[in-house]
Design brief:
Blueprint lengths: L1 E6 L2 H26 L11 H14 L1 H4 L3 H20 L14 E6 L6 E3 L4 E6 L3 E6 L9 E6 L5 E5 L14 E6 L5 E3 L4 E2 L6 H16 L5 H35 L2 E5 L3 H4 L6 E2 L7 E2 L3 H13 L2 H11 L4 E4 L24 E3 L6 E3 H11 L1 H8 L17
Parallel strand pairs: 8-11, 11-14
Antiparallel strand pairs: 1-5, 1-7, 2-6, 3-4, 4-5, 6-7, 8-9, 9-10, 12-13, 15-16
Helix pairs in contact: 1-4, 2-4, 5-6, 6-9
Length: about 400
C-alpha cells in the first residue's frame, strides 16, 4: 500500500469527518444486523439486501442523503468482505468502529483516475462530496483501482492507494540469516549484527509521563482533557512512525542481502494477551496476584520493538524465502558444540557454554541456532543431552 500525507483545509476536514461518520454508521449498522444471527432465526441480510435498505434509508433521512452514496456503499462492501475473511479463517471477527479511533473511508471506481499532479512536490485528489484535496508527493503515484482516506488519532490525514508492490528479488548468493527478536535488542542477526528499533527519547518519555499525569487530573469532557489527549496521541504517533520506518528499512535490507531468512515462530498476539485473573479459593470474591503490571510492561516492550510487523513485511517483500523455526531451546543451545543446558545462559546478554566454554552474545548465539534451521529442529525432535545434575555423595561404610 502506497501512502501519502493529505493536507485538507479546515472546511475539507469537516466534510471528510462527516463522510467518515456516515461510513462508520453504515458499518456498525451492518455489524449489528450480522450479530443478531441465531440458530432459531433466519439468515441475516447480505450485501444485496443491505444495499437496498441503504437506498431506502437515504430516501428517508436527509442527513444520510447529504453524504456520498459511493462511500456508504463501499462501507457495506468492506464489511461483506470482512465477514468472508472471518469465515475463511484468515482474519479476526469484525469489530465496532468508534469515533476518533476509526476515521476513514474508501473510494473505488472512476474517482481513482481523478488524481491531478500540481508540481514536483504536490498533487490533488478528488474526494466525493469534498472536492479536490492536496497531498504531498513523497513518491510516484501508483496505478491503483481504489484509495483510502484515513485520519489517525494525532489528527493527521493520509491517502493510501491499494497496490501490491513487486517482491524484492533474491540476491542469488545462497546466504542464510537467522533473526532472533528480543526486547532489549530488537533483532539480532546470525551475522553478529544487533539492530535496535528507535523509540521515544528520554526527553520525550519524560514529557509523555508528565502528560499522562495531567490527563489523570483533567475532568472528563473538558477542553483541557482533549488537548492533553491530542498531545499524547502525537507522541505515540511519533513513536509509531519511527517503528514503521525501522521495520521497512530493516526488512528491505534483509530481503536484498539474503536468500533465506529464518525467524522464530512466535505467536505475538497470544504472547501479548492480558493475563487472566486468578480467583482466591480461600477468599470468595478476591483474586490472587497474577503479575499483571509486569506482564503489561513486557507487552509494551514486545509491541514497541515491532516483532510482528517485521515478520509481516519480510513475508511481503521476500515471499517463499521466510522460514519459521521452532524457538524451543535456541537460547540454551550452544551454536558450536550443540550442548543444551539452562546454565549456558549466564544472564540476559552473555552466553557461556558449560561444555566447551564457547562465549558469545546470547541473542547472536540464538540467531545462529535459528539460522541452522534443520539442525535445531533435529535437536528438538531428539533433545541433546542435558548436563546431569550431580547427586550428593553419601558416605558409605566399607
Amino acid at each position: 500500500m502506497s501512502r501519502f500525507r493529505l493536507y485538507p483545509t479546515p472546511a475539507q476536514q469537516a466534510a471528510l469527518l462527516e463522510q467518515c461518520r456516515h461510513a462508520r454508521y453504515v458499518w456498525n449498522l451492518a455489524l449489528a444486523q450480522w450479530s443478531m444471527w441465531t440458530r432459531d432465526r433466519g439468515p441475516t441480510p447480505g450485501y444485496v439486501e443491505q444495499a437496498r435498505q441503504l437506498t431506502e434509508a437515504r430516501a428517508a433521512f436527509d442527513w444520510l442523503r447529504a453524504g456520498s452514496q459511493i462511500v456508504q456503499q463501499q462501507a457495506l462492501r468492506d464489511f461483506h468482505q470482512a465477514v468472508k475473511n472471518f469465515h475463511a479463517g484468515t482474519h479476526q471477527r469484525p469489530t465496532w468502529r468508534k469515533s476518533a479511533r476509526h476515521e476513514g473511508l474508501r473510494i473505488v471506481g472512476p474517482q481513482v483516475s481523478r488524481v491531478m499532479k500540481l508540481n514536483r512536490k504536490w498533487a490533488k485528489v478528488n474526494v466525493p462530496k469534498v472536492g479536490w484535496v492536496r497531498f504531498r508527493l513523497s513518491r510516484a503515484i501508483p496505478a491503483a483501482k481504489s484509495y483510502r482516506v484515513t485520519r489517525d488519532r494525532a489528527g493527521r490525514w493520509h491517502l493510501a492507494f491499494a497496490v501490491i508492490p513487486p517482491p524484492i528479488p533474491a540476491p542469488g548468493t545462497g546466504e542464510v540469516v537467522g533473526v532472533d527478536r528480543g526486547v532489549t535488542v530488537s533483532a539480532a542477526l546470525s551475522t553478529g549484527e544487533l539492530l535496535t528499533c528507535p523509540g521515544l527519547s528520554d526527553r520525550e518519555q519524560a514529557r509523555l509521563k508528565h502528560l499522562q499525569q495531567r490527563l489523570a487530573r483533567c475532568r472528563r469532557g473538558s477542553q483541557r482533557r482533549r488537548r492533553v489527549k491530542a498531545a499524547i496521541a502525537k507522541l505515540h504517533a511519533r513513536a509509531g512512525d519511527r517503528r514503521k520506518d525501522w521495520v521497512e528499512k530493516t526488512s528491505t535490507d534483509l530481503a536484498r542481502r539474503f536468500d533465506v531468512i529464518r525467524v522464530e515462530d512466535l505467536r505475538v498476539a497470544q504472547m501479548t494477551k492480558r493475563p487472566k485473573p486468578k480467583p482466591d479459593p480461600e477468599r470468595p470474591g478476591a483474586y490472587l496476584p497474577n503479575r499483571r503490571r509486569a506482564k503489561a510492561g513486557l507487552n509494551r516492550g514486545i509491541l514497541a520493538n515491532g516483532w510482528g510487523a517485521l515478520v509481516r513485511r519480510l513475508e511481503h517483500k521476500a515471499p517463499a524465502r521466510v522460514e519459521m523455526i521452532n524457538p524451543a531451546y535456541t537460547s540454551q543451545t550452544c551454536s558450536v558444540c550443540g550442548h543444551r543446558a539452562p546454565e549456558n545462559r549466564e544472564n540476559q546478554a552473555v552466553f557461556r557454554c558449560v561444555a566447551c566454554g564457547h562465549e558469545a552474545n546470547a541473542d547472536v548465539n540464538a540467531a545462529i541456532n535459528i539460522a541452522a534451521g534443520r539442525a535445531v529442529s533435529a535437536r528438538r525432535e531428539t533433545p541433546p543431552p542435558v548436563s546431569p545434575k550431580r547427586e550428593p555423595q553419601h558416605a558409605t561404610s566399607p
